Amino acid sequence: MELWIPITIAAAFLQNLRSALQKRLQGSLGTRGASFVRFGYGFPIAILYVLCLHHFAGYPFPALNWTFALWAVIGGLAQIFATMMLVHLFSLRNFAVGTAYSKTEPVQAAIFGFILLGEKLTPGSVAAIIVGVIGIASGAVFGISAVSYRTASLSLGGPGPVMEAAVTLACVTTFQTAFMLVWMFWKDKREIVQVVLSWRSSSLVGLAGVVGSAGWFTAMTLQQVAYVRALGQIELVFTFMASYFLFHERVNRMEVFGCLLIVGGILGLLFS
Questions:
Q1: Which domain holds residue 54?
Q2: How far apart are CA 8 and CA 234, in angstroms?
Q3: Would you state the pLDDT for residue 134?
Q4: Which is nearest to 105 in space by CA: 125, 74, 129?
Q5: Are the beta carbons of 129 and 93 closer than 8 angstroms?
Q6: How many CA atoms lie within 13 A of 186 on its CB side?
Q7: How many folded domains does the chain comprise?
Q8: Are 175 and 43 in contact (CB under 8 A)?
Q9: What does R_g of the chain's alpha carbons equal in angstroms?
Q10: Are 163 and 129 in contact (CB under 8 A)?
Q11: What is the pLDDT of residues 107-158, one digit of tens each?
């Protein structure tokens, strides 16, 4: 089994855990605050991860460059707004449906990968994209984010996929934290206070988010974004379990049909 496969499955589980925790926080912190904790409580762990790889595993620090900086900023901003849209979507629909709608990301990542990186698409992939894309904004922006992170990581040119992914994660989450702190300070300083007061539950979001992101970043450095994200849709299994057992939510027939249509497009992309 190729290494990116178990890494992706683990990342999908942690992403679902993070989303479930964010849904619980959304009521008390609001959309912006619940989105911020993913980055604000995660970036110290990301930096510690890089330092451990350097001092204990012997990985040298890669040389940063302007190409890396550009794509890291693009990916970071895209992920911020995609996360906010997803968290807001949880307040409009139940957890399972909200997450499933965001899963148009892999097929849209395939499109962005074709445009930006020249990655090839088979006729089966094109057909799957047509079925899967329903124009959901969060999926599109997450797709841009994923491709940007892969581009940023690959631009480092060494010393290996693990360290490249770790450095990308540390730089991006630090930038996202600084950006959102300035935004929250400008818009509503009380949000910062609420985030600090909720540190126990918020820190769990940050931990799950940064460990999951480390998995995503590593897998996407090893394999094309579209295939990593397609396999990562195993998250939907965890999502429906959390929706039913944790949030006690129910999904109507039309929502089930819509979710199955999205999953069909994703599976078509994976198996093509």
A1: 4-271
A2: 9
A3: 43
A4: 129
A5: no
A6: 6
A7: 1
A8: no
A9: 18
A10: no
A11: 556 666 766 666 666 666 665 555 444 465 666 777 889 889 999 999 998 7
